[in-house]
Recover the amino acids of this structure.
């Protein structure tokens, strides 16, 4: 993915990693549209950042995805990059069904099925462009589990294998697949995470991601240094120690 000259859609772009990247990508000469569920948030952000366009989208709702995709493509027929940023993370107790079933359904619907539906809504558009990119968003927790968030871990592991699989299928097209693998970042993903001492500062994360994309336009997995501890535990042979340390240092995902 070239660092400039793209037309990009980032659902889940009203805060956290999505907004941080949207602002930086727009500053690098890209046309960027963000998506979110709340019109008031979108209006506030586009007032603060008039370089961004915005559409309402709920990635848990298939009809909302379809409507937003049509609107984004209508406004920006040159669109060539989709970032499947939207996601939720919930602490769950799997000792009884009351502690996890409804939460798990919501997490999988948003994180995994939402990404699948987004790709489905944009794949024809992306396939029509000479240089297109799907950027999926998994997590370091796709590779080492946090005990408190089983459904989130599973959904992000699913995103990782989805990314690997569709990269193979789309190898005969001009659509590239890049997987962004964040570590814990200081965002509002969970209560208290934005002040976490063990989470990476958002600004530092976003700057490192941009540097990676600029340095290596053909990168397949965008990995800041902080995520490699989780990503390569099995390859290094210290997976059990990684899991133990992860859950000792950060037992509630914060």
């Amino acid at each position: 993915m070239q660092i400039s000259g793209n037309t990009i859609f980032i659902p889940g772009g009203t805060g956290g990693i999505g907004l941080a990247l949207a602002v930086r990508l727009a500053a690098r000469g890209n046309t960027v549209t963000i998506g979110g569920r709340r019109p008031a948030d979108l209006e506030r952000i586009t007032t603060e950042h008039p370089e961004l366009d915005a559409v309402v989208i709920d990635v848990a709702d298939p009809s909302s995805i379809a409507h937003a995709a049509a609107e984004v493509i209508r406004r920006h027929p040159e669109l060539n990059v989709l970032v499947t940023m939207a996601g939720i993370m919930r602490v769950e107790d799997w000792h009884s069904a009351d502690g996890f079933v409804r939460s798990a359904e919501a997490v999988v619907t948003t994180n995994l099925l939402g990404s699948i539906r987004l790709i489905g809504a944009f794949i024809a558009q992306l396939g029509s462009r000479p240089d297109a990119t799907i950027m999926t968003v998994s997590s370091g927790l796709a590779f080492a589990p946090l005990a408190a968030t089983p459904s989130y871990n599973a959904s992000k592991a699913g995103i990782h294998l989805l990314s690997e699989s569709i990269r193979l299928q789309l190898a005969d097209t001009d659509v590239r697949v890049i997987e962004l693998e964040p570590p814990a970042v200081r965002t509002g993903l969970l209560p208290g995470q934005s002040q976490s001492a063990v989470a990476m500062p958002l600004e530092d994360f976003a700057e490192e991601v941009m540097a990676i994309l600029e340095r290596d336009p053909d990168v397949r997995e965008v990995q800041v240094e902080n995520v490699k501890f989780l990503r390569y535990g099995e390859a290094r042979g210290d997976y059990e120690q990684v899991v133990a340390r992860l859950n000792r240092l950060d037992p509630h995902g914060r």
